[in-house]
Amino acid sequence: TILDGLLKSMQIFQDNIDVRAGGDQELKSKHFARALTIIYALQSSLDFEKGEPVATNLLQLYEFARQQMIADLGKGIAEGTPKAKDALSEIRDAWQAIGAEVKK
User: Fold this and answer.
1) Which are the contacts of 17, defined by CB distance < 8 A and separation ≥ 6?
2) Contact 1, 42 (CB under 8 A)
3) How many Å apart are CA 70 and CA 13, to the nearest integer?
4) Most buried residue, 30, 38, 58, 63, by CB count within 10 Å?
5) pLDDT tens across the length of the chain (104 residues)
């Protein structure tokens, strides 16, 4: 659910990043801040003692997403955000598949 919220905010940020091309500045700022807050929460919740290799990889992925959004904000165009969104979507899909298997 949290990952879905992150992906949604990243998409809204991406859709509104170019204010000169009709993007909404308020939506862009709101969802940029929301996405970074979610990323921070995800990073903070990682348990390195119980799942070190997975936690380290997730930390790197979340940091990649954060850096891409910040870079795109500075440029005013979405170049890295779509790439980060795609990578996070793969993780979300994998978690959903695992959840479906566990329910069986």
Assistant:
1) 23, 28, 72, 73, 76, 77, 78, 81
2) no
3) 11
4) 38
5) 899 999 999 999 999 999 888 999 999 999 999 999 999 999 999 999 998 899 999 999 999 999 999 999 999 999 999 999 999 999 999 988 988 888 77
Sign of the Cα torsion 36, 65, 96, 16 reads: positive
| Amino acid identity at 87 | A
CA distance readout (Å), 64 to 4, 45, 59, 60: 17, 17, 9, 6
State how far the Cα of 59 lies from the Cα of 45, in Å rounded to an integer.
Answer: 10
Rounded to an integer, what distance in angstroms lies between the CA atom of residue 12 and that of residue 23? 10
